[in-house]
Task: inverse folding
């Protein structure tokens, strides 16, 4: 039996790490960015609406993607779209001149993020023996959590050296790009 810790699993872990690094960089500065656009009085309402709609979008997409994951042969294209466009949409928030644009980009990012998770998890379940699911999914989630730790730390240091908020959104695209490259070059479907 081949090891469950193979190149595909390394690709999933790397994609999760870089994807969450990108996500948490943008999440960490979004409240400040929104406050600059709409003022501090309206920022909490705007953030609540944006995040609520983004979460609803992701949930709806996960339902569709989960249904689709049971019916398709190949998962890699969905993961490339999910990781790739999530990073692009999150980086585009830095270009927003209105709260409507922030809303559109954040909801778009969560929409495509919802595509990738059921596809990735189904793929993992197909390549890892069921007796080792705990190890495989635990490792993937641990790398995701590590990315969630690195993202805010990166933002902290970038703010300390006076990097502007829009430029930080742009820089978040770098780990987002690495998440896509992890899927493209480290995973392989038969």
Result:
């Amino acid at each position: 039996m081949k090891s469950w810790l193979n190149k595909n699993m390394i690709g999933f872990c790397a994609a999760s790490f870089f994807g969450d690094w990108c996500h948490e960089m943008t999440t960490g500065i979004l409240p400040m960015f929104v406050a600059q656009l709409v003022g501090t009085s309206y920022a909490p309402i705007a953030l609540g609406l944006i995040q609520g709609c983004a979460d609803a979008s992701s949930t709806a997409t996960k339902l569709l993607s989960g249904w689709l994951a049971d019916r398709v042969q190949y998962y890699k294209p969905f993961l490339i779209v999910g990781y790739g466009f999530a990073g692009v949409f999150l980086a585009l928030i830095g270009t927003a001149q209105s709260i409507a644009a922030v809303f559109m980009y954040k909801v778009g990012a969560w929409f495509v993020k919802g595509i990738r998770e059921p596809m990735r998890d189904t793929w993992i379940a197909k390549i890892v023996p069921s007796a080792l699911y705990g190890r495989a999914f635990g490792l993937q989630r641990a790398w995701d959590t590590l990315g969630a730790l690195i993202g805010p730390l990166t933002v902290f240091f970038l703010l300390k050296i006076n990097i502007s908020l829009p430029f930080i959104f742009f820089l978040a695209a770098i780990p987002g790009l690495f998440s896509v490259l992890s899927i493209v070059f480290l995973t392989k479907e038969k």
